Amino acid sequence: MRTRRANLLLFFSLLASSPLLALSSGPPYSCDASDPSTKTYAFCKASLPIEQRVQDLVSRLNLNEKISQLGDDSPAIPRLGVPAFKWWTEALHGMAYGGKGSIHWSFSGIFKATSFPQVITTAASFNPQLWYKIGEAISTEARGIYNNGQLEGLTLWGPNVNLFRDPRWGRGQETPGEDPLHASKYATMYIRGLQGDSFEGGQAKALKTSACCKHFTAYDLEKWGSASRYTFNAVVTAQDLEDTFQPPFKSCVQDGHASCLMCPFNRVNGVAPCGDYNFLTKIAKEQWGLDGYIASDCDAVGVMVGMYAGTPENASAVALKAGMDVDCGTHLQKYSASALGKKMITEADIDRALRNQFAIRMRLGLFDGNPLQQQKYGSIGKDKVCAKEHQDLALQAALEGIVLLKNTANILPLSKAKVSSLAVIGPNANNASILIGNYQGPPCISVTPLDALRNYVSDTKYVAGCSSTACNSGIAVNQAAQLASSLDYVVLFMGLSLDQEREDFDRSDLLLPGSQQDLITNVAKVAKNPVILVLLCGGPVDVSFAKTNPKIGAILWAGYPGQAGGPAIAQVLFGEYNPGGKLPVTWYPKDYTTQVPMTNMNMRADSATKYPGRTYRFYQGETVFPFGYGLSYSNYSHEFVSTAKTTLKLQGLKTSPATNLYEINQIRSKECQNLNFKTTVKVTNHGSTQGRKPVLLFLRWPNETNGRPRKQLIDFTSVLLKAGETAQVGFAVSPCEHLSRATKEGKRVIDTGSHFLMVEEKEIEITVA
Question: Which segments constitute the Fibronectin type III-like domain (predicted)?
Fold first, then answer.
């Protein structure tokens, strides 16, 4: 089971502070120029097409050697000079612990790496350039570690682009949030950065590192009630699959040109994705054009035995026949020979998997001789790991991801000159590890929020209030209240930690844990000034009590802001940075968890059953804070200043004369391109402070019949504006993509009639004839 990953994460975290592994002499590679046999192998000739080189290598392998390569831990083939390769390396928001290919951390070599904010925090910036730069920095550090002989794989298993469908999901923090367009754009930019592509995307064949989008598809439940990710059958409608669950993975492949997809444990409509020929081969490889490999989640093939496939040999056969290429685990290595003997698979099935595998290794340059001597990335040294520019980028990402949720009477920003004493309260204030989130590595620096605030106010005093984020022991409300009443200002650091949300663990409710609410309320009651509440958490929490309490003057959400989170929070609190982040998920009231089972995958509301729907696109209830919400120290205005087209005439075939629908697949590609137009929005910063402003462009329909979303994000960008400055932001609108919706049958259609483009409170009508 995937608990093997949890055990390995623990092992590597202990390793980082233990007697350490010896460094190898250099990075592993094939086709050593000093070996005379290299000249005789076509697979070593970099001038030949990769397809030809791969075919030559696979043809030289005997059956045992072939089968040995099917797992994530692929052993060496000494007779051909092929070293071992470890496929499983984690790099969700920085080079991380865990995975057989992950770093051999060593105090005599590299023992730290830049820890960027957790993905949910970075996503709140709505800044594609930032996401690209983070991917670029992580891949640079990966190459530096590899070149130093401390990394055995350059296949990085990230990003996680499953949608944050349910607010209780323990792994929601790993994702860009709940919106498919937002997640798609994040995936595209992050992948381009990881793989060495340009920001605009040139589909470079050579790879700096290989990115893998996970978990394809409809995976967003860990352990809830009796439901487990290992046995859960996600029942998903064709409509939801088309417009919600699949778009991020399609963008991974077609826009980001990801070189890998990972399939999960669960079933989707009764079929395990790792054994689904339709998903893996027909859709991913044939329709979308995946140029790469498909990996299983760890031990997902073995999980199929009891859940779906019946026997170990059949699980192997189903996975290989479906189009899976790398088994994270040993199942295929153990049972493929037996499946072959029983004629459940052919050697050609194995060869296909190996061709996809070795093509990636060759695109990484691992069959071109010593990378330190002759390759594009061979000059990247260990000095690039924790480089200043990367640590500066981590700070920028943390700053841009912080969301200001409340600021009554402009209590923020605080003034260093006017704050003579400061009380810092809460279990999350003095624990730097909480800032990092899961799938983490050892950060370059470690600064708690408490330490950061002490740099601003010398008279800063601290009380934890309770012993941990669970806040069910060591509760010291009276001590915290006494401190709060004696000092000028109070900042409370509350929220969640990996004890409440993580892989293999979902939350049961949306409340702050234990006695946190009582602690906050009692401290606020006696404080001299309205208190400031800082929330560190990945998933949303119901803080309605704080939103409506006048004694709580400000609320900040910082997610899990990474190694620079402490300084970033302090800079925002004291006005050195003007917050501009926007929530990438809906914050629901606590009653949502009693209305909606996690196991109900339906996105759309159903009035007959009083099912309220999911995410801002379909949810019909009240929110604590909506998707896209976020305040600033500046006030901004928006205005549509030009739109090239306001009436669109289509020549495609309607589904029937009475329906007033145009089917996208009936509209010629050229005609779709001719419909494209640009719209320009004027944005003005009316404040006295420079600020970065995310500008979100939505589409809404006149009504929500036939499963139409309430509104739909169709594009966004981020613009930096000086005080008083105005900028014009242009958006390219592609009606066949942005104005279309999914029918119940999963077909894309455009409705005739009115469509409305929206930015904040402004909108403009587009008519389709």
Answer: 693-763
CB 544 within 8 A of CB 511: no
Strands laid side by side in the 403-407 sheet: 403-407, 552-557, 531-536, 489-495, 422-425, 460-463
pLDDT tens digits, residue range 378-421? Answer: 999 999 999 999 999 999 999 999 999 999 999 999 999 999 99
How far apart CA 204 and CA 202 sit, in angstroms, is 6
616, 662 Cβ separation under 8 angstroms: no
696 close to 628: Cβ distance less than 8 angstroms = yes
Helix (H) or strand (E) holding 518: helix 516-526
How far is the CA of 82 from the CAs of 100, 150, 233, in angstroms? 18, 18, 40
User: What is the C-alpha radius of gyration for the chain, rounded to an integer number of angstroms?
Assistant: 26
CA angle, residues 700, 701, 702, in degrees to nearest 5: 125
pLDDT, tens digit, 9 for 90 and up, residues 593-616: 999 999 999 999 999 999 999 999
Question: Which residues of the chain register pLDDT less than 50?
Answer: 1-23
* Rounded distance between C-alpha atoms, residue 104 and residue 108, angstroms: 11
Task: Using the structure block, give the residue that is written with the tokens 């470890």.
Answer: 86
The one-letter amino acid code at 447 reads: V
CA angle 188, 190, 192 (to 5 degrees): 70
Decide if 31 contacts 38 (C-beta within 8 A). Answer: yes
The 10s digit of each residue's pLDDT in 667-725 is 888 999 999 999 999 999 999 999 999 999 999 999 999 999 999 999 999 999 999 99
173: left (phi over 0), alpha (psi -120 to 50) or beta: alpha
CB 422 within 8 A of CB 573: no
What are the angstrom distances between the C-alpha of 434 and each of 494, 537, 561? 11, 9, 9
What's the maximum distance between 2 C-alpha atoms anywhere in the chain? 81
3-state secondary structure string, 278-327? HHHHHHHHHHCCCCCEEEECCCHHHHHHHHHHCCHHHHHHHHHHHCCCEE
Element (H, E) at 618: helix 615-618
Q: What single-letter amino acid sits at 403?
A: V
170: helix, strand or coil: coil
**DSSP symbol at 364:** T
Model pLDDT, residue 657:
62
| pLDDT at residue 87, rounded to an integer | 97
Answer yes or no: are the C-beta atoms of 477 and 440 closer than 8 Å.
Answer: no
Helix (H) or strand (E) holding 356: helix 347-363
What is the identity of the amino acid at 71?
A: G
Percent of the chain whose predicted confidence (pLDDT) is above 70: 96
pLDDT at 375: 76
- pLDDT score of 12: 42
Angle ∠(693,565,551) on CA atoms, nearest 5? 75
Contacts of 698 (CB under 8 A, 6+ apart): 711, 712, 713, 714, 757, 758, 759
Question: Is the N-terminal amide bond of 159 cis, ω within 30° of 0?
Answer: yes
Verify whether residue 591 is a known catalytic residue. no
Q: What is the torsional sign of CA 252, 254, 257, 260?
A: positive
**636 with 684: CB under 8 angstroms?**
yes
**Residue with structure tokens 């059953």?**
609
Token pair 């040109």: residue: 257
Alpha carbons 695 and 519: distance in angstroms, whole number = 37
Catalytic residue among 73, 197, 297, 368: 297
* Distance between CA atoms of residues 75 and 580, nearest Å: 49
Q: What's the pLDDT score for residue 653? A: 64
What single string gives the DSSP state of each residue in 230-278?
TT-EE---HHHIIIIISHHHHHHHHTS--SEEEE-SSEETTB-GGG-HI
What letter represents residue 449's amino acid?
P
